[in-house]
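TA notes. Do not distribute before section.
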Amino acid sequence: MDAVTQFKQALGNYPTGVTVVTAQDADGNPIGMTVNSFASVSIDPLLILWSIDKNAFYYDAFTNATTFNVNILAADQGDLCMLFASRVDDRFGKCEWHPGQNGVAVLKDTASQLECTVYNTVDAGDHMILIGEVTSIHNEDKEPLLYHKRLFGKIPDAFYQQS
């Protein structure tokens, strides 16, 4: 097995949450894509990061945007995950959303939304890391959508039991 296959297999063993990151293109149109490369960076200031493949369709639009939003998907939003992972035209015409305080799309009924301004970008191999400073936060009491070994699902009830 080659190193790339082993690397993908190893990372597939690490469950992650699923987000849809949204921004606006140069013409002010909403854009969005499913992302699981999302993490917290700092508390002071409030910083998060996500990464985008340099070959991604929306690479230029995202790397030129000054604001973006991270929509953390709820366990029942597998359809949104697949919609924004696809090449479907007019993704935003197929879901409910509204402009956030920063004017960028916020998806309806997500577990959380983080509105961000671009804080920094870091060139990292075949990806660009976008670091955002969180300017607005909205949370709902919902279970998150998880991604593990190329499957989507929710946290099993046993996870919540404490000894």
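Switch to the second chain here.
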Amino acid sequence: MKKAFRNFYKNLFLQSRLFAGLGIAAALYLISFFLPWLSIVPTLFFCTLLLLFFADVWIIYRIEGIKAYRKAPDRLSNGDENDIDIIAESLYTFNIKAGIIDEIPFQFQKRDVWYDITLLPRTPVEYRYGLRPTKRGEYAFGNLMVYATSPIGLVSRRYIFEQTTTLPVYPSFLQMRKYELMAISNRLTEVGIKRVRRIGNSMEFEQIKNYVVGDDYRTINWKATARKGDFMVNSYIEERSQHVYCVIDKSRVMKMPFDGLSLLDYAINASLVLSSVALRKEDKAGLITISDKKGAVIPADNRPGQLNKIMQVLYREKTRYLETDTDLLYHTIRQTLKQRSLVVYFTNIESLPALKRQLPFFKKISMFHLLLVVIFENTELKTMSESPASNVEDIYTKTIAEKFVYEKKLIVKELAGNGIRSILTSPQNLTVDAINSYFEIKAAQKI
């Protein structure tokens, strides 16, 4: 009995309408002090308010009138909007105004999560909201609380539903699925993926098929045409089973944040998508992570579980705070890669002296493999360099920003002068630019 009363007291909340009624009653009592003929009015008003209060409490507590639960995915995608659904149903015979609080993980640092909905009798209502995590790891959800208010609106009752669960945040698999679906439906151009003209034909013959408008007339098979009595053409496919390695620098230079995510997380998300695209092109995808120590190494393969293996490794990767050992990177690549491969190296080179230290090892790698160095563009500095200057301080700031932006361009030029391909891209365009470069390399048959 004592426990039941404690639960009743803890879950009963007084509404502003009740306090407004008490304020009006107090004002009427004050007025009746000066106008004695009104003395009965405040008493009647207060008694009516008291009766409504007890009636409201009885109505809202007479049954367990609310059912609710949270429907969430098995895992969350880092850097993407993840849909979380709340399904609530009222067992009362009248409309209920409900406020919902979902105890979301502390990593989001939100203290104003309140959703207002109206529940009709015996009609489930689904409310959807989105969460965008910016770090990989485990995110713990708490309870789901619903505050139910009757049409009288003097009190509300809190219902607490135990919905505690912990969800892992993986690299951006939603982005990966988006690109996969667009590739299947030939809609990659909508997100900036270019249609690359193939230079010549690869040596892998696929089949002889009927000529359709748009086929290259140079591929007409005249012998088959003579036998069939209709134009037949040779069909070729891109070379398969080529090795594509994503190499991720996880040193301190990748700790820099952009739009909530670190550069390491952008590189991880892009690597996952690029590996997925390579596997869909029937190439073999592999992964290497490096800093001052050798990290994870996954040999290139195209078996069904390869992408999941890459995702599990990327899920656990964290930034280290020392500089990358490029000599170690070179020896790791030489030991792991047994044939000529495309090596996509995600890093962040900020200055020419930093490039000079790494360039000898880049040259050695490019002697055996096709090296593609992906460098991040500092969009904040670029915006600063393009903004107009209004005073002397702005002029100094703009000049320094222009110097750093120009130095990034010099880094790209220096790499090109040494025969090394590179991409200078902003974090938000990283995935698209990496896929475009992969397609261009495939089309040019340079692997």
